Amino acid sequence: MANRVPLMAGNWKMNLNHVEAAGVVQKLAWSLKDAKHDASQSEAAVMVPFTDLRTVQTLVEGDKLPLTYGAQDVSLHASGAYTGEISADMLAKLSCAYVVVGHSERRDYHGETDEIINEKAKVVLAGGMIPIVCVGEKLDIRKAGEQVPFVLAQVDKVLADLSAEQVASLVIAYEPVWAIGTGEVATPDDAQEVCGAIRARVAELLGAEASDAVRIQYGGSVKSGNVVELMAKPDVDGALVGGASLDPEEFAKIVLFYQR
Ligand code: PGA
Q1: pLDDT at residue 243 greater than cutoff 80
Q2: What is the pTM of this model?
């Protein structure tokens, strides 16, 4: 495997207010320091609600915590009359490293299409941040055995018009929708099948350098008890973790998978 540092990203979704966020981030950092976490083996990141970002930034920068952080969505627009939206510039100003785009919950509840997600990925890159671009099939597609062609069609669309350099810098999260929040984790072989196919597609579209560098995460019911087997797969470069990331001790164990 190339020099891809695994990215263990907690996706808090709409959980933890800014007061609670401070407690969770401090406990997480404490657990990592206690275990002598080596950030060259695994990167710990938290994707938090917008209202938590300033608090997380202050803690991470002020106390030099071994964490990166980011947001869960971004507006397509740069500024103006878009009530309720948050721009890439606003997120960059808070020193966000990452922005999740195209999570299945955004696709399902907010009608986000592959085309919108592609535009959002471009907006994040233009803002100097790294998009975590989500793809993944629903249960009917999986039952029909169509997961690979389905996800590759999503990949083609969400990466459209991006350069090899841009794709090398970003993160693709493969999250089978049937495994999200259900306790129904994909087997390590299931995860490898699709993550491997995504990497091969990136090689085909943009060349070996981009496909060696792009980080591909698995997401869906990742826990400390299943992360080691998933991470043993050659094309799984990390995890996007929902529920288990809300418990700082449990999430620390996930980040520290490489010590086991
Ligand atoms: P889960 O969520 O870990 O709770 O299944 C994953 C995600 O939606 O990113």
Answers
A1: yes
A2: 0.97
